Amino acid sequence: MSKNNDFLKSSRLKEEVFNIMCPDDISLTAKNYPLVCLYAEALLNKHKRKQIANVLSNKMREMGRLMKALKTIDGGITGLFDALKPENFQSFISTTKIISGSKANDKSFDAPLLAPHMETDLKFVCNSALKNVLENRQLPHIQWTDRQKTKNDIKDLKKLIKGHWCTEISSLALKALKEKHWEKPVQLPSNSDIQIFKTYVNNLAENAYHELRNNLNLIKNYKILTECVLAETLMFNRKRVGEIQYLLIDNYNRTTENVNQESFMDSLTKVEQLISKRFKRVVAGGKGFKPVPILFSKRVQQYVDCILRVRSEFEIVPKSNPYLFANPDSEDRWMSGASVIRKFAQRCSAKEPSLLTSTIFWKHIATTLQLMSMENYEMEQIATFMGHTKKTHMEFYRRQKSLLLLEKGKKKEFKGKSLGDIELDADVYYTTGSENENEGSDDGQHLSERILKKVGKRPRHTGGTTDEVQSKSGPNFDSTADEQDQPPYKENLKKQEQVYTSHIHRRLSNVVQTRRDIQPPKINVLEKLIPRISEANNQVSSSTLDALVGKLAPKIGDMIKNEMDKLIEKFDHKLNNVVTKLTSMEKSIHDNSEEITVINEKLDSLEQNAKMKKLRIIGAAEEQNENLLGKMLKLITEDLGIKCTPEEISDVYRVGEAKNSNSKPRATIIEFVTMLRRNEVFKAKGLLKGKHIFINEDLTHKRYNLQINARKKFGRDVWTRSGRIYAKCGSAVKTINNEADLKD
């Protein structure tokens, strides 16, 4: 590196890139070639964000691997600049195949993307070298004698790369990459795994938040809470990892006031108005420097406020670190969102932790959105919020619908409709085979439907008298309509009176005799049959209809009665089953309620036992940055006259949300090491009379509410001892265990 010190003195690479590169032979090889450094510096000048340093480190290491492999192929090459000649084009191809893991037998690649990337990198290297030659700037390993020849060699090599790199290696590499994509199916996480992950992160964040509020294990809990907020923000917003993990504190604190937005707010529903107030909208820079909104819920905002408070008070993170999700003791580094998601996924006991990644979360929300009937402008808004284009959501998730339509031959029905307007019925997904498979089966259709089909069909040329056949072949007969099986009654009904009169008469008179073996009809047979008979009234004589009704009425009446009897019997059977099940469920619920009551009482007893060594002090003045332990020791020793040392108190803290200076002081919880000292302090509480400071036992939430209700009924004659509540009723003392004791 000594040869390049002069060149690197003014280079940004030393501070921004070299320090984060892996210290091995590949990095050392890349650093030793000034052309590689010039190439990396040119890329660095193109970008503004500091995160580009990781990308440049990878780029330099790729060039380092290229040079190591190039020297094994051609030992005469001394540096990358000397290798920029057209005769070395095949050497660059062979070297790229080596470092990308090309296999000649099946034309596959271990790292297929490296091949097209190397084409772009080498063209950029040629531009950097050509710039140096034009500027006549010679550096170690960048030397030439014939300037014109050197320029021509670099230009010719760049032409070869531009024109032939694709056919030599890139095309095969991209095909191999696409094969890997479709050979590996896209799997989405299940809703149960997402809920398990979310619950795990929520619980972890809640515990860390409460401990940070009491300033316990600051560094550990700060890191846990920051990781949880990062994971929750990624989960809720479904954004790219970089758009979240690089968020700056200044961007988070920057708020935009809603000016003159009343008319827009009025257009929203009440639920939408409430949602707009409960979320904080932060705008960050996304891919391509596009503005990307990030939403923070009220709960997550509380976590962030706690994180920022701890950072400002205890300097866990240096003030020079501008990132919201900053690593502890780091001046300019941020937490890796991908690593955080991966760590939590492995620890949350999900069935498929490998599917819980930020990239798959994109696909999950894109697939979910396709289940909704969203207009184009709504899809555009969602895509803009996600920082994507609409194509990202629609390209791979809406093709199945068109394939199902083609499979079922539904093209004509949906002509001129968009995919969003097409609603697929269940039969598109599940039915197979012909729709008329069961047409000849008695069990496949109801009798009423078959009757209507037979009445509605045109007569076929399958029998009948000579007169009928002649009338069917008359000039007014529509043979085309017969072939297409169209409905029988249209505008030409009067013209076909003779044909349809004989046809309806024959069909209706024989329907009962030909269908005796079919199941009883449903009740709605007459409802469908009467309109047909009414239409045929003008063609059939009254005597014929009277005879027909006389034959059908008794039979249809009996069938209706039988059907009603079956329905009533079936209903009674189902009703008896429901009553039996309800009776069983009521007994089970009663038993479970009693069991739950016993369990709750046991839990309350265990919780109270855990509080036995604690006392709750109300009214003690609260100050900012107070020494709470010293204040409580002073109260015990001076006001109560009890000798107490710090070793006899295991914990002391305030409970509740921190309030402003004008509010009442929060209660203080003191936990003693021994019950002896705790009882001594509790018995001496009467010495505080007139000082507006009160000492009570620390009760569970249930017992605290029970104590309040007892005082409402018995007044001041209510007290506690060892977690139990007592009340004086006349001359007797009563123990209050539950609400039922207050009713006696």
UniProtKB/TrEMBL annotation:
Gene Ontology molecular functions: DNA binding
UniProt xrefs under InterPro entries: DNA_brk_join_enz
Coiled coil: 589-616
Keywords carried by this UniProt record: Coiled coil
Polar residues bias spans: 463-479
Region described as Disordered: spans on this chain: 454-488
Keyword Coiled coil on entry: yes
Membrane-crossing residue ranges in chain numbering: none
PANTHER family tied to this protein: SET DOMAIN-CONTAINING PROTEIN-RELATED (PTHR33480), TYR RECOMBINASE DOMAIN-CONTAINING PROTEIN (PTHR33480:SF1)
Protein name: Uncharacterized protein
Classification lineage: Eukaryota, Metazoa, Ecdysozoa, Arthropoda, Hexapoda
